[in-house]
Amino acid sequence: MPAPLPADAPAAAPADGPAATPVPASADADAPAPVPASVDADAPAPVLARPRLTATLLMAGSCLPILGAVLIAPVVPKLQDHFASVSGVDALAPVALTVPALSLAVMAPFAGAIIDRLGRHRLLVIATVFYAIVGTAPLWLDSLPAIIVSRALVGVAESAIMTCCTTLIGDYWSGRQREKYLALQAICSAVSATAFFALGGAAGSAGWRAPFWAYAVGLLLAPLLATMLRPTQRRQGTGAAPAEPTGPLLRRLLAPCALTFFGAIVFYTVPVETSFLLKDLGTEAPATIGLCTAIASAATVAGAAAFTRLTDRADRMLPWTLALCALGFGIIAVAGSVPLLVVGAVVNCLGTGLLLPTLITRTMTMLTPANRGRGTGLWNSAFFLGEFVCPLVLLAVAKPTGTLAHAIGLLGAAALAVAVGLAVTRARRGQSLRPAGSAAA
To answer: CB–CB of 8/41 below 8 Å?
Structure first.
């Protein structure tokens, strides 16, 4: 008899369509995501007393890791000036900005394993309180190494928060509803990144410590998460599928996570590098940089919003989505003026807005309630590791190619090659499955 789910880890609702036939673990990265026969089909679905409030709280929680990634970016130069006497400050100050992403990537799989054992709700509340404590620690710390340690702990908290929120979206909703909220999560991430960057810049005018007060929002959010997220009742059901051993789960998610790692590099290139690209074109005015970044973020939001209308075709369109990202990179690579650069950024961000929810949705369909935490943790690890290495990869490629724009053009060529590979693989799979389908008919 299958083991029941913990009280705070509700199972997903029945999927919109019939359960799909399982696909072997060796299936390629572009194959439609395999769905174990037990996923969603037999699991009891939670009945949410306040579905809109639940969605709002999960979206708010999902924004917390974004806050950690961009909030202090505008004050890094001031942080560096404050600790100018510290040996190696030129390298340590940027690490204070990026170390949460690395910590999140390393810890997300462990957070996923804990979630599957102890439940999502309890860990989410604890992690949100811990996030507020370590996030505000630089307000009274006066040692750069100590601040970096606190930032690494922020990443630990973020790994639990992001994994819990995404897993709960998978638990509370299924089918098109789940896809809608995963796309909304991507939209909130894009919008909040722009808002938090502006907030960090405004607060930074009061000193480099001021933006860290924003982390205290965790203390306001935690009580709401504790009291509002737990479903009030459950439908009757047969229980959850037994937990899958970690080895087969890792093998099954290896290709999707590898694609997600590459997709994260593609996703973060424009947000991270726009200011440097504009500087290379002779534009350093903060207002211009902010406007260009906002326009690109709006394109990401538009792409994610379009995903909600293309959910039935989004996975099949993945090669075209990557090709659109590649086209944007190509335009950026040859841009000799700011307007053309913005056009390239918009084209690319339309593609990345489609890309992010497609990657997480196709992974979610491969997971059961019993392994959804571990699977989501692995996906988050791949995505945020890609975020962390994105500027490092482009910096390494820019040296032999000569300029950052040329490095981005090379990344565009790689994205196009991946898109072609996915399209060819899908076509070959379609041809191999067609005779079998004809024979069965």
So the answer is: no
CA distances from 362 to 63, 187, 336, 349 (A): 22, 17, 38, 20
**pLDDT score, position 52:** 86
Report helix, strand or coil for 46.
strand
Contact, 201 vs 70, CB < 8 A? no
Place of tokens 């072997």: 24
C-alpha closest to that of 16 among 49, 58, 45: 45
Token duo for residue 211: 């933006």
Q: How far is CA 83 from the centre of its chain?
A: 32
Specify whether the CB–CB gap between 170 and 364 falls below 8 A.
yes
In this prediction, residue 347 has a pLDDT band, given cuts at 50, 70 and 90, of very high
Give the rounded distance of the alpha carbon of 229 from its chain centre. Answer: 21
Angle at which helix 246-280 crosses helix 338-364, to 10 degrees, equals: 170
Contact (Cβ atoms closer than 8 angstroms) between residue 260 and residue 366: no
Token digits for 297?
A: 């973020």
pTM of the model: 0.74
Exposure string for 111-123, b = 16+ CB within 10 A, e = fewer: bbbbbbeebbbbb
Strands (E), 155-225: none
Q: What is the C-alpha radius of gyration for the chain, rounded to an integer number of angstroms?
A: 22
Q: What is the DSSP letter of 208?
A: T
